[in-house]
Amino acid sequence: MSDLNNFSEIKEIYKEYESLLSSNNSLSSHVNSVVEDWSRESRLALENEYPFDEYEQFRDKYYRIDSIDELPVTDLVAKYSQFCKSAKIPYDNGFWQRQIVSNKTNVVLKEEAEVAKKLLFQKWGEQLKQARLNWELETLNKLRQAFLSQLEELLKLFEELTASLDDLGVDPGIWLDLSDGNLTSQDIEQFKQWADYLKNDPMAQEICDLLGRMRDVEKEERIEKIFTTQSVDAWVPDINAKEEIVGIRLSQDIENVIPSELALLADPETSILFDLKFIENQLMTFDMVGLQQQTTEIEVEEEHAYSEDGEQGPMILCIDTSGSMHGRPETIAKAVSLFLATKAREAERPCYLINFSTGITTLDLSGKGGLAALTGFLSKSFRGGTDVAPALLHTLDVMKEDAYKKADVLVISDFIMGSLPEDILSGIEDQREEGSQFYSLVVGSCFMSNRLKTLFDYEWVYNPNSSSITELVNYHQQSGLLENKEIHHV
C-alpha cells in the first residue's frame, strides 16, 4: 500500500492555502498533525476492519497439509463458497463438490481430487490478494474523500477566522496556538461568529474602544546610569626606537657616544682611558627613545533618560450569563469578553474569566489555554437568576494570588440583581486601596433602578433599545454624584 500522505489532492490543498499555512507555524504544524493522525487512523482501519481475515486464516491453516485425507474437504469447500459470496466472486459449487469432496472417497479418482485441492488453494490465494487490494482501494478512497472535505473545510474556517481577526487588528497567532490539538471546527466557527459580530457591529466596536482604555498606561521617565567602553589613542615611549635625544647616559653604545668622549681617541695616551670606560660601561652616550601610538579601552559612566510604558496589570472579567442576559446582551457580553481577552493576551497580561449566574465557572487564560479553551468557556450559559456575589467573592480570592495582585476588574451584566453583602464591599475597598480598579459595563435599560451603589470606579452603560452608550465617570469617587457623559447615540 502506498504512503497515505502522498495523495496529490492533499498536496493541492496545501498549495491552495500556502499563504495561510506559511504565515502561521502553529497552524501549519496543526494541519500536518491532522494529516498524520488521519494517515495513522486509516492504516489502523485497513488493518482492523479487513473483512476477509477469517478466510485468509482458514486457508493458511490447511494450505500446507499435503494429504487430502487429513483435510476437512467439506468444510474447506463450504468456506471457499462463503468467501466467494462475500467477495462477490463467481463460484461453481457443483464443480468443487465433484472434484474434491466426491473424488476424495473414490480410489480411482483420488489423484484428481489431490490436483483439484491444489488448484483450489492456489486460486483461493490469488483471489484473496485481489480481494484485499480491491477492498483497500475502495475503503481508502472513501476515507480519503471524507478527510479531504474535512481538511478543506477546516482550512477554509481558519482562513475566514484569520481574516476576521485581521479586521479587528488582532494578530491571529495570539489565539491560533494549536499545540494542544483539541480545537474543533465547531470551536473555530463559534470564535469566528463572535469576531464577525465585533467587526460588523459599530456599537460593539464603540464599546470595545471604550473598555480598551481601562487603566490607560502612563509614560514613566527613568534615568539610568550605564557604563560604556570607549577606545582612546595615546603616544607612549618606545625604548627600542631611537628617534629623539632625551638625555645623556653611561653605556658602551659606540654609535651614540658624545663627541667629547670620541676626542679621547685622538691621543694614544687618552685612548687607553676610552678603552677603560668602554670596558666598564662608563662612556657618556646620548639617551635616545622613540614614540608609538597605542590604543587603550576605558570605562565611562553615562546617564540616560528615557520614557517607558508603565506595566499593565492583570485583568479579571466577570461575565453575566443569566437568563435576563439571553439574546443580544449575552452576545455583546461574550464578544466584548473575547476582545478584551485577546488584548490581554496580546499585551501579555494575565487574564482570568468568570461566568456567573447563580453559580460560577472560571477560566485562567494565563496558562496554555488557547482558542478551544476560550470558546468552550464562553459558550457556557446558565440561564438562571443573577447573583454577582459568588463571582466577586471568587474575584477577591483570586486577587490574593501573586499573579493577580492589583488586577483590573470588569463586570459585564444587566445588573438586575440585589445588593451586595458588606464583606464583599469591604473586600473591594481593600483591593482598591492596594491599587486595583473596578469597572462595569451595564447592558440594558434597567440599570438606574437596579444598579449597585458606590461600587465601581468607572461605568459604561449600553442601552440596546436606543443603541446608546453612556459613560458614568468616577462614580465611586464622586460618592454618588453622577457625571453622565453621552458617548455615542444612533
Oligomer, anyone?
A: single chain
Overall pLDDT score: 76
* CATH-derived architecture of the largest domain: 3-Layer(aba) Sandwich
Form type: flat
- The total strand number stands at 11
Report on the architecture of this protein:
With 490 residues, the protein is an alpha/beta fold. It folds into three domains: 1-167, no CATH class; 207-213 and 311-489, von Willebrand factor, type A domain (Rossmann fold), CATH 3.40.50.410; 221-305, no CATH class. It has 16 helices and eleven strands. It has helices at 8-16, 18-22, 25-48, 53-63, 73-86, 93-104, 110-167, 185-200, 202-211, 259-262, 268-279, 328-346, 371-378, 389-398, 422-433, 447-450; strands spanning 219-238, 244-251, 283-309, 315-320, 351-356, 360-364, 408-413, 437-443, 458-463, 468-472, 484-489. The chain has an eight-stranded mixed beta sheet with strand order 6-5-4-7-8-9-10-11, with helices on both faces. A three-stranded antiparallel beta sheet has the order 1-3-2. Strand 9 and strand 10 form a beta hairpin. Helix 8 (185-200) packs across helix 12 (328-346) and helix 9 packs across helix 12. The radius of gyration is 45 Å and the shape is flat. The two termini are 65 Å apart. The model is unreliable at 217-221 and 475-490 (pLDDT under 50).
